[in-house]
Amino acid sequence: RYENTYKTEPDVKFRSAEVRDTIKDIFERELGTMKYDKERCISLTTTLSEKIKHSVKILGFPRYKIVVVVAIGEQETHPSIAFTSRCIWNQNTDNFSEYTFKNASLYAVGLVYAMYMD
Amino acid sequence: MDEFQTGEETAFVTDEVTNIVKEAIESTIGPNAYQHNKVNQWTSNVVEQCLNQLTKLGKPFKYIVTCVIMQKNGAGLHTASSCFWDNGTDGSCTVRWENKTMYCIVSVFGLAI
What we know:
Chain B: This is Dynein light chain Tctex-type 1. By secondary structure, chain A is an alpha+beta fold. Chain A has helices at 16-30, 38-59; strands at 64-74, 81-88, 95-102, 106-116.
């Protein structure tokens, strides 16, 4: 496991906007005009979260721990869902990125949290 | 690198965290029926209560807590998470709770400092 370096500032800071675009691209490419289908969505959520994690790793943020959360749900006529998150972290170094994708029959929420490990 | 046992204090204890989350949910929305205008406040309260209790544990962890509250009206929802972390010290737990009118899903991710 990584030993502490006690280097309080990361060399490369997490770039929230860039990661948001990455999530957007992956959702648009994989979901596009797909209809909500219960069976498919079960495996789709896990595949998407793996893909997003992989793309964030490629972007390259050394010594950052990454948590990716993906939620896919059926579009309803009346909104009836609330999604909240809070974190305890270091305000200077840690950040998150979020993107919500919608089409006619489903919505998908992608969240990426990045925590710097000093 | 030397191999040494990770102490109890620095590992993510799932049971402890599950209890904290269950208590937070029960005390915030336990007896209530789904109300659209209250949902935002409820999710914030659940999350904040979880975080308060987690920090009281006094462990060297950073926490991410997410909460989803959904009305029971037939719509489907799937969630998944993928993490890039240290398997020995970091962990997560998810608690699913429901009553007659709504579902509540709370996930806690703990990352060792």
